Amino acid sequence: MPEDPSPSSVRWSKLLNTFGPFLGLMLVIALFSLNAEVRPFFLSGSNFKIILTQTVIVAIGALGMTLIIVSGGIDLSVGSVVALTSVTGALLLMEQFSATQAAILTILTGGVIGLLNGSVIAGLRMLPFIVTLGMMGIARGVAKWMAKNQTVNAPDNPINKLMELEDPTQLFPLPHGVWIAVGLALATSVLLKHTVFGRYVFAIGSNEATARLCGIRVRLVKVGIYGLAGLFIGTSGLMQLSRLTQGDPTVAAGLELDIIAAVVIGGASLNGGTGSILGSMIGALIMAVLRNGTNQMGWRTYTQEIIIGIVIIIAVGVDKLRQRRNT
Amino acid sequence: MNPNNLSSLASARLRMRGVCKAFGATRALNEVTLDVGQGEVHALIGENGAGKSTLMKILSGAYTPDRGIIELDGSPFAPRNPLHARECGIAMIYQELTLAPHLTVEANIVLGKEPRRFGFLNARQTRDLTRAALSELRHESIRPEAMVGSLTIADQQIVEIARALVGAPKVLIMDEPTSSLSQVDSENLFAVIERLSKKGVSVVYISHFLEECQRVCHRYTVLRDGETVGTGDLKTAALADIIKLMVGREIKDIYPRSHRSFGKTVLQLAGVSGERKPKDVSFALREGEILGIAGLIGRGRTEMLRALFGLDRQKAGTVWLWSKESSHGTPSSRLGEGVGLLSENRKEEGLLLNRSLADNLTLTRFSPVSRWGLVNGLKQREQTQAWIDKLGVKAQTPDQPVGELSGGNQQKIAIARLLHHQARILLFDEPTRGIDVKSKAQIYKLMFELAGQGRAVVFVSSYLPELLGVCDSVGVMCRGVMASVKPVSEWTEHSIIAAAIGHEEAV
Question: Which of A150, A152, B379, B446 ranks highest by number of CB atoms within 10 Å?
């Protein structure tokens, strides 16, 4: 083929694919460091600890969302499900369940909702956008109903320690939540890149017709994807509960958009078939650094929102330009 | 075909001289020459990757040449972009139709140049333009207000040509126009081309079907590896010579028939019907046998394979596999029974274009390259490389996306998947569509090899010479019914066409 680029340029573009989001992260950090007043604290270990801790909820949600988006789907119900699961956790703790039992049941609640989403999407062949839009309303409503429209104050318990900063002046020790997120990210990355299940996820997102032709049980795999993603979202809910130390049915509104943005900044395409866990994690970090940096600069929330919006468009725009050059 | 034409050759409509184009280090075109007279139908022939598409993309303004002269009607022509080329009278009909399926026929025909009055669409003028274009093509039967998506592929192509005609083109480029048409629809299209030619429109006709080129075209130019290697009068040329020019060597016998014996019956269908098509299909397939299925496009051949493979619902009838009843399969159960399907639609269904060769090849059977669900990347690449070598696939590495390969090589990967799966019954749906002669010959050879190993093949094709050349027996589908299955020696091209249009008794 005449259009074939030479092997060396292939290697370059591969490198760029891997490190593109990473460069973006460096760039965002560098930008905030330009300000001499902000720099000393912004670049300190204790601030990075805060940033990492703030990333945990989005990052764990993004693990599930990456699976879903790579398979060509979308989940708009994440914010509501995080609220619902955090309320569930808090209620269980009030009912004298042990912290371990409460944590497991909280995560499973997310998994069950994911299975529901997946079953409807696969079983009735409905668009994920519509089904999860519906679930977004249902989960939020159920959360408020269960919490009787107010926050649920759980008794003091070990779950609260997951997101605790312990010694806020030092980078280490990092909160358990950060390590849990890192561990889950590693496991999910292996799952997506090195297992047969992962190949099926990519195959379905790349071309569902081909997946069917090749005997992949597309519907079953889809239910699996949404169910697994639900477990991650439940874990996000647990972290949310730990961070607030209470169950709040109104929390995390719009969280799904932050998560989708993180995944897309990380190089995934909403058309499915592309994406990586490493990319999504860096995407989540970029979002957190932007939030943190704009706070440090003393900018208003609306400035923050505008900037984050622009960054999403630039990130995806640059990606498109690069792909066009590659083809 | 058109005697006026030889005289009009003097007035060259299009002259391309010394055209060069390189992409990085690869020379796609090197000193290419092409002359097309007014009203001439000119065949542009070459294997995939020979540079035909690049040359046509230069002509239609998508690429700029590095060097070379292009003249249109005697004056220099340097299209800045596709729109500019269109305005100068270069119209291109792509292999994949580019119509908007949710718009009406007339909306498609005037798309981009809608007649306006005071800024509003002028409905009457639109209708007139549409009628005029369609009647010029003698296809008044197509309703201007019909949705394009509801038309047959053949009619859609006519609409596409009508759209080109509205711009009063000087040169019409047609890229593989018959690749998805049946014999009868192709004949229709040839008549349209002849009419355009008589009107003085020049046509550059790209096709892999040489017999077809000889029917419609006056002259030919052969490209090989980006260079012009021959040009001449097509009517007096011997096809064997042209093939020699294309491949740079003689393909001695493109159908190297082998002698083999048939084993027991492995697949049998009785009265099988699908949701809408097919209506009634019965046949039996033995080990080592290649069964050809002929018939017009849209008469249920593909649907028969899909229902058999479980991609579409099987409504009635019985299927026996390996002497056991096995109706109503699913793709995964069929694969489990050793049945593999090669989709007719390589790009939209057959392959994951943005995934690697290795993933595409092992997709139906990861077991030899994985353990406890973990894929062993090294093993996967090794096994893929073995198939790449065995089938002569032109590829850089097993990791590159399959979409980067040429059509023929993509098809080899799709076939390699079935071989990796160790399928014993192979359902091939138009396996040679849109691929070059050399790859075609390799695929025929492979089919003989597979049959020789005792595998059974169902071979659906619209190209009669290959059916007659490759198959042991041939069945013809007509209106969703498998009319008759007979040994290949009892068929001729003529009798197959007669059976396909339901005139078997008249022969």
Answer: A152
